[in-house]
Each structure stands twice: as structure tokens, then as C-alpha cells.
Amino acid sequence: MIGRVRAGLRAVAVAVAACLAAGCAATPDAMTAARREPPGIVWTGCEGLAERFQCAKVPVPLDWSEPDGPRIELAVIRHLASRPQERIGSMFMNPGGPGQSGVELVRGGGDDFDAWGGGRFDVIGWDPRGTEGSSPVRCFPSEAEQTTFWQGVSIPSTTEQSKAYEARAVDLARRCGEVSGKLLSHISTADTARDLDALRALVGDEQLTYVGLSYGSMIGQTYLNLFPGRTRAMMLDGIVDAVEYTTSAETRTADNVSSADEVFAQFMKLCQEAAPGRCALAGHGEPVTQRVEALFAMARRAPIPAPHADPPGTLSYGDLQMSTFNPLRLPLTWPQFAEDLDAAAAGDASALLTSARQMQSPAGFAAATTSAAISCVDGSARTPVSQWPQEIARFTAAGKLWGAVLGWWLWAPCAANWPADDTDRYAGPWNAPTKTPVLLISARHDPGTPYHNAQATEKLLGNAVLLTLNGYGHPSYQVPSACVDQARERYLVDLVTPPKGTVCQPDQQPFG
Fold it and tell me: CA 10 to CA 17: how far, in whole Å?
């Protein structure tokens, strides 16, 4: 993919920490009294963007089982096809999260996503309900109260910190219920899939063309099975295992963290094998793995000074785990990541602390809460948050690097008496067939959505083909591959999938 899009998506990932988004709650004004769908979407110009971009607000039912009930609004954007005389239809896109902004995705990369479809689609993104510009989940009456609640909080790395975070998770769930109310029960992935089908109909497409990235693949799988026969083409990159995701918060979290350790090992292996001067962690008279293990042991014993952070501080073990979250997903940043780890191993963890602080800012925690709010409805927790010792241990056993991080971030809110029911959710079956195969794409070493998810999904769906990138990244486009680019466009335009078992090579290596 063209660099500008890749850079823009990296920025989204960094800002959200698990690919998340925050915002404001639905209000009575947002839940409008309209009783019928408009004849179509009323598009207007987008502030600050060229004429080829158009924006809109689209009302949909808060509860799809009550189509004449209260309404919320969805923020929608489209990039007009660059080859309108050969236009096929609309291509809907979702960047994942749960909770990332589809509006920002298209705003930042519309020109390049246009190329994914050969210039023959209007590229449409939307903020899913409960996020960003679409009646967002909110847990505090004001931003100031949100900042006060999260200020100085970090992922726990001691028993004392964990007990304090347990209490904070319970308080957070209570606050979310008080401020967002019944909205929390109507932001499931199935609700979003129903919104997507309404948008498809409003733009006049008889069948859906959809690109789902990361958690966006969950929206796609849900749509396929809720609305069989309505899909023209569906391409999913960075695949969520629908069964693991919806079974429970515990199975979802264990799956989420299960591949990061292997990818971190790949990072160290490539660093060790890189040419002299290519990786800062190498060349110290000891194996790279030994130097990194010593760094983690040092952080476990005591926080590491970070004198050049702003403000200066110290890096805890939890901060160190958090600082790996975005770099592992972005292989082309690995040389810089190696420099930051090497500096910390030498006693200056300033760069890693700065990275961890971005993730653990009040905005970052609020974004994680939005992600949890959606996933808690899709698959609730089976154990209370008071059982954190055994559950965090379980997640750490599944993935040492990120087990505690995602356990506290995404499992704990679900386990803390989350104030929502799950009557709107969809939990299978997942095998509805499509006339054209679904195209699944996955990097072989993906830390965010394990490769085995893609393999399981290929078997589970009624008609799917898996294209493998023999490389790294989440999703696969983080590292360019002309082979994947060609397969993507041929599928979206001509509905032709590569042969089963096709493996593409990347055009660039992390330390190349």
C-alpha cells in the first residue's frame, strides 16, 4: 500500500493503543424522532477536504428491533471513484479496533484506497455506532473528570497496583452505565452489521463490497451470516476468529495475546541476523535475546530511569510491556524500536516511557474503554474481576508479553459488572456461503490477530480463500507487497481470487 495510507493507519494505531477510539455519549437530541429512512444519503462537502470527498450524517434506529423507536446518527464519508465512467459501486471500509474511525480512515487515505479498487468504487467509511462521530460511548460527564480519573494510571505490574486497578475497573463500569445508559446494550457488532446493510441500501447497491481490517473482519463475518446473499465481494485483512471472539471475554483475550511472543522472537531473530549497524541491539558481545531478557529482568527488579522523557520519570515493567504494543505491529519501525530497547538496556528508558505514556494517557484509556464496551456486549466475561489473579495468570500463560496489558485493558471492564445486556449480539453460525469466495489476507507473523485465526476462518466460512503474506505486520499492508496489491485489486474489481494456498513475499524486510 502507498506509504501515506500506511503512515496514516499507523497514527491511528498509536493513538488508540489497540486500535481504539473515544468520544461523547448519545444524547436525547442525537436520538432523533425521525420515523422513516430517508430516500438516500444527503451528502455535503467535507470541511477542509477536496471536492472528491463528501460527508453525511445518517439516522438509524438505536434498537434495530424497534425500527420506529429512538434514533442515533452515524458519521459517514465517501471518496468518489476516480474513474466514474467505469464505476462498479461503493466499497465500504472499516479499520478495526473495535472503535477506530472509518471516517478518519477514508479522510486520511481515500486516494490510495481508491487505487485498491482500480478507481472504480466510491470508497465509504463510517464511524461505527458508539464511537467517534456516531453517538459515542461516554463514561464521564466532562473531559476534565475523565482526565482526573485516568491521570497517572498505568498497567499494573505488582499485586498492590492490581488491587487498585480492580477497584478502578468496577468504578469505571458504574460510571459508563450512568452516563451512556441504554446505548451500551446496542453497540454490538451485529448492530453495526445492521447499520452497514442500511448504508448499503441507501447508496443504492444491491450487494455489498466490503473491506474489513483487523476487527473490521469481525464486522464482515457477522454481516455475511446475518444477511446471506447480499455480498458481492468481501476482503478481510488481519482476521478475528469469530468463535473465540464471541465465546467470552476470557477466550477473546487469550486469543488476542497468543501471537505477540512469537512475533517478538521474530523481531529478535531478524535483529541478530541483520547486517552490521542495521539493528542497535546487536553487536554488544552477547546474543540479542540475552540483552532483551536482561532488560525485562531489570525492569522487573526496579523501574528504569527515563531522564529525557517529558517530564522525566521511570519505566515500570508494565510500561515496558505496553511500549512494545505498537512497534510489533509496524515492522518497518523495528530499527527505531531496537534503538529504544537498546537505550533502555543501557539505562535510559526515556523513549520507551514516552511511547508507553501515549498509550496510557487519559485519551488512550478512554479509547480502550470504547473497545471494551463493544466487545463486552459481543462476548461477556464469565468470571468476576475479583478473580484477576487467576485470569491475568491465564492470559500471561497465553501470551507473556501482552497478557497483562490486554487483560487489564479489555477483560477487566467486562468482568466488572459491565452495565449492558447482550440481546442484540450474534454468535453464529459462521458458515453462510457466498457466490464469490471471501478473500482472507494475513501476514504469517501477525501479533494482533494470530495467523491461526485466518486458518480457522478459512475452514469455518462457507466459501473463503486465504492469501498469506510470508512476513510481518498487522494488518498485512504494513509491509508493502506487489503480489498482495495485485491480488487485492483483481479480487475487488474482477471477483477473482488467487489459488488456494497462495503465498506472497514482501517487497521489504524490517531490517533490510
Answer: 10
DSSP state of 4: H
What residues have CB less than 8 Å from 60, skipping those under 6 apart? 71, 72, 73, 74, 129, 194, 195, 198
CA atoms within 13 A on the CB side of 213: 28
User: How far is it, in rounded angstroms, from Cα 102 to Cα 268?
Assistant: 34
Helix (H, G, I), strand (E, B) or coil at 60: strand
Give the integer Cα–Cα distance in Å for 101 and 96: 8
State phi, psi for 221 to the nearest 5 degrees: -65, -35
Consecutive 10-residue runs of the chain (512 residues): their mean pLDDT?
Answer: 39 36 32 44 94 96 96 97 97 95 95 95 98 96 96 92 97 97 97 98 97 98 97 98 98 97 98 95 96 97 96 96 96 97 98 95 94 97 97 97 96 97 94 96 97 98 97 94 97 97 96 89
What is the rounded CA–CA span in Å between residue 281 and residue 305? 19
d(CA 267, CA 265): 5
211 close to 477: Cβ distance less than 8 angstroms: no
102 half-sphere exposure, CB direction, 13 A CA radius:
34
Closest C-alpha to 129, from 206, 83, 78, 196 = 196
Query: What cell numbers appear for 484 in the block?
Result: 498482495
Strands 121-126 and 44-45: unpaired
124 forms beta bridges with 78, 92
Give pLDDT, residue 512: 84
Q: Checking DSSP bridges between strand 438-445 and strand 313-315, what pairing results, if any?
A: unpaired
Cell of 274: 541483520
Crossing angle of helices 249-256 and 362-378, rounded to 10°: 120
Cα 260 from Cα 356, distance rounded (Å): 17
Helix (H) or strand (E) holding 5: helix 3-16
Please report the pLDDT score of residue 6 as a whole number: 47
β-strand 208-213 against 121-126: which pairing, if any?
unpaired
Nearest to 77 by CA among 30, 127, 114: 127
Residue with cell 486520511: 108
Give the three-state DSSP class for 68. Answer: coil
Q: In this structure, are residues 101 and 71 in contact, taking their beta carbons and an 8 Å threshold? A: no
Among residues 384, 398, 325, which one has the least CA distance to residue 355? 325
User: What pLDDT sits at residue 28?
Assistant: 30
Residues 42 and 59 sit within 8 Å (Cβ to Cβ):
no
Instruction: Give the integer Cα–Cα distance in Å for 50 and 41.
Output: 19
In the chain, how many H helices and how many E strands? 20, 12
Q: Is the peptide bond before 327 cis (omega within 30 degrees of 0)?
A: no
Give the residue ranges of DSSP H helices in 346-469: 350-359, 362-378, 388-398, 403-406, 412-415, 451-460
Question: How many residues comprise the chain?
Answer: 512
For the chain, what is the radius of gyration of the CA atoms? 22
